[in-house]
Automatic annotation (TrEMBL):
Coiled coil: none annotated. It comes from Triparma laevis f. longispina. The keyword Magnesium does not apply. This is K Homology domain-containing protein. Residues 134-202 form the K Homology domain. The keyword tRNA-binding does not apply. Gene3D superfamilies: K Homology domain, type 1 (3.30.1370.10).
Length: 223
């Protein structure tokens, strides 16, 4: 039969002293090599990135290969090669003290493949508040044939004057690749440039768009 315990028995069995609460553990600060699993000795496996080179960027890539290779190898300590069979740039991690070096290198190469100059693409490695935004003209308005060509022409302007005006007013870099529009800059500046480009696609006069963009840019500088 099970033994029935009384209240006095339970009180007698209760320890008189409370169990001490353990103090908060004090862990040592992690080094950059420990926070990056790719550079840790416990996880020697490397990561890869492969960025395909479009046909129209093959010649510029070959011409600017040394300028592209220098920041990837010297500053990010990445292993880089160009695969002639797949026509792609392959990146591989190595022991490095920079967390996220592989992703930065992939963004840098992708930015160049979109059509940006090497000098502009290098800014992605130096500044942390730069972003890339890409969209198509047909995402704003469904246009076909000559209407689509005229919309692209309104964005570029005569001899690229409209595009240069948007770049200078918003401190961004813009690439027009057929129907694709790529914008490089800070978040606020990208938003101003994108709104101006969308207005041009919708058919707004360039003069009115430029005045509105300049007013918005002035307010951003004052804030």
């Amino acid at each position: 039969m099970a033994q029935i315990l009384t209240a006095s028995d339970l009180m007698d069995s209760t320890p008189t002293s409370q169990t001490p609460v353990p103090s908060t553990p004090d862990y040592p600060e992690l080094t950059p090599n420990q926070t990056n699993p790719n550079s840790s000795s416990q996880n020697p496996e490397s990561e890869y990135r492969r960025i395909r080179c479009p046909p129209h960027r093959y010649t510029p890539l070959r011409t600017s290969w040394e300028q592209i290779l220098t920041p990837l190898v010297q500053y990010l300590n990445l292993l880089v090669r160009f695969n002639t069979k797949t026509r792609s740039v392959e990146l591989k991690t190595s022991p490095t003290s920079t967390p996220g070096a592989l992703q930065k290198g992939a963004d840098f190469v992708s930015c160049f493949m979109m059509g940006f100059e090497v000098v502009d693409a290098v800014a992605l490695l130096r500044l942390d508040d730069l972003y890339l935004d890409s969209f198509q003209v047909t995402d704003v308005k469904m246009l076909k044939g000559d209407h689509l060509s005229r919309a692209i022409g309104r964005i570029a302007g005569e001899d690229g004057k409209t595009r240069y005006a948007i770049e200078n007013a918003t401190r961004t870099r813009i690439v027009l690749a057929d129907q694709h529009v790529h914008i490089l800059g800070s978040y606020q500046n990208i938003r101003v440039a994108r709104d101006a480009i969308c207005s041009l696609i919708m058919g707004a006069p360039p003069g009115k768009v430029y005045n509105n963009m300049r007013n918005v840019g002035r307010r951003l500088n004052e804030s």
